[in-house]
Amino acid sequence: MSTVLFKALAFVLMISLGYLMKTRGILQQEDSQVLMKIIINITMPAALISGFRTFSVDFSLLFAVAIGFGFNLLLLAAGWIFSAGRDGSTRALYLLNVPTYNIGNFVLPFVQGFLPSSAVLCLCMFDAGNNPFGAGITYSAACSVSGGSGRLSLRDIVRRLFHSPPFLAYFIMLLLYLPGIRLPDAFFDLCGLFGQGNAFLAMFTLGLIFEWHLTREDIGEVGRILAVRYGLCLLAAAAVFVLTPFDLVTRQTLCLCLIGPITTLAIPFGLSCGCRQSRIAALSSVSMALSFVLSLALLIAWA
């Protein structure tokens, strides 16, 4: 228990440090874009690669892909149903923020910090099912209801995926390991050194981008979106943990993924669809805070 609480406190301090650096004017929110590029192009791929040191194929990994894809599809349908009758930009807000997960910048540091290294592979498989939605499926649906242009095709979605360094790292390593090709330990040691910085950079960046600018009239809409999302997510996490036959680490990893926050791509996509900036910022910030509290609560309960 003490180890979990110490690591949880360390994560809180990392986020607080990022927020403090912003409020004191030492760094700007725009600086988070530079850190995001470092995370996406260097530390996150390295962390994913290092997880392949103990790679082995089993049914639970395929199940993780199905959960990532299938539950996102369910959340997208829920966003469509619960936004019925509202204006186009509000419907787009539901379709972008009820589904999709920020796995790499949020859930991965928790998995790295609290679970065995083998859990990273399960996380990767869940994200393989989650990625197509964040990369374009939800944006395509949001464009169709908002009347905006820029509808994405399947080809656009696949192109985005294969231009993502974390997805490429995962995909290449999977191609190597399925036929039994094993890379030397020195390579994993090197990737592990780079990957160790991912947790700090990800948490620090969350502190930089954390914002709360919401008018009274928007509170109800934001609350409904989050209630739909987290109500379904908590039910799914409970079902996975109690009903599936997989090992404890796999079930814990899937639970952390299922209560993860909204993808950061919902911000630029929402602006493109004409959604209110105040609502977009609030959804991103409150989602991070809720997922942080829920993740810590689960980890403490499991300790």
Descriptors:
Na+/H+ antiporter like fold; mainly alpha; 303 residues
Produce the secondary structure layout.
Elements (H helix, E strand, L loop, with lengths): L1 H22 L8 H19 L8 H24 L5 H10 L5 H12 L4 H28 L7 H8 L3 H13 L7 H11 L1 H13 L6 H28 L4 H11 L7 H7 L4 H26 L1
Q: Briefly note the CATH topology name.
A: Na+/H+ antiporter like fold
pLDDT under 50 segments (min length 5)?
148-152
Beta-strand portion reads under 5%
Give the CA-CA distance, first to last residue.
5 Å
Give a short account of the largest sheet: none
Describe the 3D structure.
The protein has about 300 residues and is mainly α. The protein has one domain (about 1-300): Na+/H+ antiporter like fold (Up-down Bundle). Helix content is about 75%, strand content about 0%. The protein has 14 helices and no strands. It has helices spanning about 1-25, 30-50, 60-80, 90-95, 105-115, 120-145, 155-160, 165-175, 185-195, 195-210, 215-245, 250-260, 265-270, 275-300. Helix 2 (about 30-50) runs antiparallel to helix 9. It is globular. The chain starts with a helix and ends with a helix.
